[in-house]
Amino acid sequence: MKLYIGNKNYSSWSMRPWVLLTEAGIPFDEVRVRFDSFEAGSQFKTEILKHNPVGKVPVLVDGDFPVWDSLAIAEYVAEKFPEKHLWPADAKTRARARSVVAEMHSGFGAIRQHWGMNIEAKLHDAGRRVLEEQPAVKVELDRLVSMWTELLAASGGPMLFGDFTIADAFYAPVVTRLVTYGAPVPPVIQGYVDRVLALKSVSAWYRDALAEADFLQFEEEYRTSRA
């Protein structure tokens, strides 16, 4: 299988299946396609359109069969590798996991808009300002804290549903945002953040993101150069 992804510093949707496959020990070849522009005719669009008619990453290509959208990829590999137990075994717990993954997939628009993923940057002042000026971000942060607290209490940790699942892969990019923007969270949530950062897959993604040394102005809202 090949997984087509974008820049690791910026591409939150690419991070989700990459972390999932890597943490689960599912072999794949990484194909990184640098963001140069998202306009028609850009090198990025030209390359990705060969594999995904929507022209976006991530795309998983299994043989000659492409699967796009991070949630579809997660479901595909969960069915292809049932022995990896990527969803919880219990039916009700599995339904809850699917619910919170779908919530991430379709929601948290304010956090995604105002706290874009940017692993290399430290934007704590901007993060504070956003919380003061954008009430929707505060509402969504409160929802994350409430959700994660309840799930960790129910499962006993260390991950949201006990063992690592698709849910943790989907929220891993959110963890990076909390770090980048210095989001204030209670100790139980900080503990989860630290455990996600310590996962071998997330640690490897971070190393690669920092090694890119690539500054893309169209991805940067709060600074004009890489420090």
Describe the structure.
With 227 residues, the protein is an alpha+beta fold. It is built from ten helices and four strands, in the order βαβαββαααααααα. It has a four-stranded mixed β-sheet, covered by helices on one side. The radius of gyration is 17 Å and the shape is globular. The relative contact order is 0.16.
Architecture blueprint of SSEs:
Blueprint: E1 2-5, H1 12-24, E2 29-32, H2 43-48, E3 59-62, E4 65-68, H3 70-80, H4 91-106, H5 109-114, H6 124-133, H7 135-155, H8 166-180, H9 187-198, H10 200-211
Parallel strand pairs: 1-2
Antiparallel strand pairs: 1-3, 3-4
What's this entry about, in short?
Helices cover 54% and strands 7% of the residues. The protein is α+β, with helices and mostly antiparallel strands and 227 residues long. The mean pLDDT is 96.
Distance between the termini: 36 Å
Major sheet attributes? 4 strands, mixed
> Uncertain spans, ≥5 residues at pLDDT below 50?
none
Approximately how much helix is present in the residues? 40-55%
Secondary structure tally, helices? 10
Widest sheet, order of strands:
2-1-3-4
Radius of gyration: 17 Å
Structural class given helices, strands, pairing?
A: alpha+beta
Average pLDDT reading: 96
